[in-house]
Amino acid sequence: MGRTRVTLADVAAASGVSVTTASLVLTGRARELRISADAERRVRSTAQELGYRRNTLTAGPRAGRSQTIGFVSDTVASSGWAGDMVKGAVDAAYRHGFMLFVGESGGDPVVERTLVDAMGDRRADGVVLASMHTRTVAVPDGLYDGPAVLLNATPASRTAAPSVLPDEVQAGRSAARVLVEAGHDRGIHLIGAGPGRCDTPPHSTAAEERLAGLREVFSAAGAEVASARWCPKWTPEHGFAATAELLRTQRPKALVCLNDRLAFGAYQALAEAGLSVPEDVSVIGFEDHPIASCMRPRLTTVALPHYELGAWAVKVLVEMVLRRGRGARGPVVHRVPMPVREGGSVAAPRG
Hints:
By secondary structure, the chain is an alpha/beta fold. Among the domains are: 1-47, no CATH class; 168-304, Response regulator (Rossmann fold), CATH 3.40.50.2300. It has helices at 8-15, 19-26, 37-50, 80-95, 109-121, 168-181, 205-221, 236-247, 260-272, 306-322; strands at residues 68-73, 99-104, 126-137, 148-155, 163-166, 188-192, 225-230, 254-257, 282-287, 300-303, 333-336, 340-341. Residues 56-63 have low confidence and may be disordered.
């Protein structure tokens, strides 16, 4: 005898909710209809445990392509950056004649697996698994069923799925060059991490790669990094605290802040110390966070190209779909350039 198929009613009964509520959760309408987070999590977890699979299309052999792409992200609606990434993916899908289905997991691995399975049930031609911040991810089993691309993420274990990532090493090189070309070779301090590979926040791929690029250019130019202040979180509060501590013992000529929110805090600490940017201290950041354009002077920063990342991931996936998985064997990493956004926060050092 074959395995008895798990029904929606089974999931509802085991979750202690109505069939209607279970259906709304598993079709992605829980938040829209104000179903509690606890009920949503319970239904999704139960569905995963019981092996429930929605079958939205008739069973049978797949005929041709559906011209649809699944996009599963840990963050969508709650971040402007994520919105840019999704917009890039949507636009690229449209240009190639595909429709994009978007699902948000909220960082919950159970929800993520359920969404990946749901994309398969809908006969999506391929799936983009996206992360808001560059990190290592456990690849859901359902992602092995067809063409897939990891966006802003690297796999925790070996997989044939290619990754599309921002070129963080080149970003570090670019930031260092901005300072070196302005004449800075002494009194340079890092805020947020470094100088060693181990002196970074946990699971921060971006920090390690930015530091590698910075070290490469500073070393080649003979520029000296005077100190580095590790921060457990890259927030304005930690940027302020690290810079204030630095100023108690040293007078920096330039600060390399590992992200723009740290730079915002550094600006406040410099102002409290009576120092001006860039007349007294040059400051450069990373990511081109919206906060960068609110700072005075406008922060010079190396931008994360969220729109381009989303578009590139879909382009890579479409190419895989069109060649039906044929191509290079083994994991491939595509690096998307991070451009410098010029502001007024870097100048030649005084004296």
